[in-house]
Amino acid sequence: MKKTISCLCLCFLIASTSAFAASTRADLQNRIDAAKVVLDQIMNAQDRTIPTDILRSATCVAVVPGMIKGAFVFGAQYGQGVVTCRTGHGWSGPVFIRMAGGSFGFQIGGQSTDLILVAVNDRGFQDLLKSKFKIGGDASAAAGPVGRAGQASTDWRMNAELLSYSRNKGLFAGIDLDGTSVTQNKEDTDTYYGAPETFEQVLRGQVAVPRGAVPFVRTVAHDFVVARGH
User: Fold this and answer.
1) How many C-beta neighbours within 10 Å does residue 207 have?
2) What is the C-alpha to C-alpha distance for residues 58 and 85, in angstroms, rounded to an integer?
3) pTM, full prediction
4) Under 8 Å CB-to-CB from 73, ≥6 apart: which residues?
5) Domain count, the chain
6) d(CA 206, CA 188)
């Protein structure tokens, strides 16, 4: 038992450390490609996906493929993902973010979860322009409803800036991410674009979408157009 616990702790420590290591452009391209795969799989899940009325309202979409959750006496979670936002002429190039949080409790375990964060109004968009904010503190958020044809029956239109979803072992559902911090990853963003670019410039569509990010951005744009047509 002690050996198992030690292995869990060591693996989580190694993974946590690697999350903050310098990324190569190839690493970042892999992250964008993984985000596209996550979206493709979730949006092809027929009725177990994001409702069309939320897709119509989306101002930004963040995808964090393989966010790691681990626990040994206290819980911890972190992940790295990409964000694109709607502009007057389509969807923006991606920027890179980190998400991290923790909770206390007597628990042992670990899992990898895909996350999607949807900004549903301009306030949610403004949150993503901040260098750092906390979900549930600096930005109001709610677990997103699920169901392609269903209408969101909650009061998210009035109270939520961000809706959050998770997928673990094929199960897709809304998730409570209160207390999770979202931080701009400027280093990775600059590395991917090959020059310093602010999040505001990129997310407002003032920077051309890099060739490698076109498939991901087109996937988001397609989902938005399909939703708008319903």
Assistant:
1) 17
2) 8
3) 0.82
4) 104, 106, 107, 108
5) 1
6) 18
Q: Which domain holds residue 10?
A: 2-228
Q: What is the pLDDT of residues 115-127, one digit of tens each?
A: 999 999 898 999 9
Helix (H, G, I), strand (E, B) or coil at 154: coil
In three-state secondary structure terms, 209 is coil
**Tokens 């002429």 label which residue?**
89
**pLDDT band, very low/low/confident/very high, at 62 (cuts 50, 70, 90):** very high
| Residues 127, 137: Cα–Cα separation, whole Å | 11
Q: What tokens were used for 195?
A: 């020059």
197 neighbors 92 (Cβ within 8 angstroms): no
∠200-205-206 over CA atoms, to 5°?
75
Cβ neighbours of residue 173 closer than 8 Å, sequence gap 6 or more = 143, 146, 165, 166, 167
Please tell me the number of Cα atoms within 13 Å of 158 on its side-chain side. Answer: 3
**At how many degrees (to 10) do helices 25-43 and 214-228 cross?**
20
**Amino acid code (one letter) for 74:** F
DSSP 94-134: PEEEEEEEEEEEEEEEEEEEEEEEEE-SHHHHHHHTSSEEE
Backbone angles phi, psi at 166, to 5 degrees: -140, 155
Please answer whether residues 114 and 16 qualify as being in contact, where contact means their C-beta atoms are separated by less than 8 angstroms. Answer: no
95: nearest Cα among 182, 23, 190, 22? 190
